[in-house]
Specification:
The protein has about 210 residues and is an alpha/beta fold. Helix content is about 30%, strand content about 35%. A 5-stranded mixed beta sheet has the order 1-5-4-3-2, with no helix packed on it. The longest helix has 27 residues.
Amino acid sequence: MGPRGVTARSFMHAPAFRPSHAVLEGGGATTAQLPTRIARYTILRKLGEGGMGIVYEAEQENPARTVAVKLIRTVLATPNVLHHHLQTRLVAGGLAQAWHRLAEVLHSRYEEIAEEARQAAVLHAHETGWRVNGVTHWLWCFAGDRCCCYTIDRCRGSPALMKFFGECFEAVLVTDFWAAYESVCAQDRQYCLVHLLRELEKVELHNTTAA
């Protein structure tokens, strides 16, 4: 049993500190600038200071215990960290180009995952809205028991499904009642049970047949 009734098990399962967004502006702080609180921590004293920031001894409210809280300097909490350590500036355009290059490198692996999904014995398909540069697109999800493939298309209809499946799907396709899925020539079908129950509830509401 530790201080204030904190056991070793509870201490290990409750992290002492989750970093907050508080950062230091510029250089270090003096004793006169000692903060009284940081988030849910009451500051007791300054433990030390270095190139990364300042470390304080503090009291945590729940669970009640003494912890160390470290404030990271502004230059290390922003994209300027690359410039600070590696003399490299990161701009939005460069980051976008890096993502495009990564997409090219991983494209063959993406195609392998898509083909693995098309070979699944049972495949779940679903779609949801997705914004691309402020324009509505659709994020399609095709999930088997061992893989999951995503594709983004401007279309929510059968053309998007034809791009993925081709002529037919020789296995069980699990979907909701969206009409576009009927265009897929599947070996067998299973409707999502949640959607099926919803449809049955609608039927029950409009059923005027006497019991």
